[in-house]
Amino acid sequence: MTSFWQNWLKLWASGVILFGVVLASGAFAATDALVRPIFDMLGHPFPSEPDAHHRFSLGLMGAVSIGWGLTLLGMINAIFGLARDSAAPFWRAILVATMIWYVVDGYISYATGFALNIVSNTLLVALLLIPLIKSGALRDGNPA
Question: CA-CA distance, 10 to 100, in Å (whole number)?
């Protein structure tokens, strides 16, 4: 995989981390201004006085997203060091895990009235698929 696609994937994982930081900011009144525009875009304004459950949920989802992004970044960096014929199964594992997240998150988003979230999720998946397909990383015997 060329350095262009490697950098793309590192930036992609970093975006997941940054999104987690934004979500986590909703756990506290002093920092929740970062997350408010996201709810506005989804058509459900952030409550002016969110309850403890709301803040806990945002903080927890932010922490999970940060952890997911850091795990992805670590895996991506490790995959770049693999021999070319060893990398494809790991790229496929990242893709399968991401698709499972996409389906579950999309269903929950739709079922709870936040269907517009599926648009941003689709963009996130597309930004993963582009380098994996263009570089041939999903095929056995191609460079990582």
Answer: 21
- The residue among 53, 66, 67, 70 whose CA lies nearest residue 23 is 66
Q: How many CB atoms are closer than 10 A to CB 134? A: 13
Region of 134 (left: φ > 0; alpha: ψ -120 to 50; beta: rest) is alpha
Mean pLDDT in residue range 81-107: 93
Two tokens at 112? 């709870």
The mean pLDDT value of the chain amounts to 92
pLDDT tens column, 32-51:
999 999 888 888 888 888 89
The number of residues in the chain equals 144
Alpha-carbon distance of 48 to 60, in angstroms, equals 20
- Distance from the first to the final alpha carbon of the chain: 5
Please state the separation of Cα 70 from the chain's center in Å.
Answer: 10
10 Å Cβ neighbour count for 52?
A: 8
Distance (Å, rounded) from C-alpha 141 to C-alpha 126?
Answer: 23
CA 97 from chain centre, in angstroms, equals 11
Distances (CA, A) of 111 to 29, 41, 48: 28, 18, 24
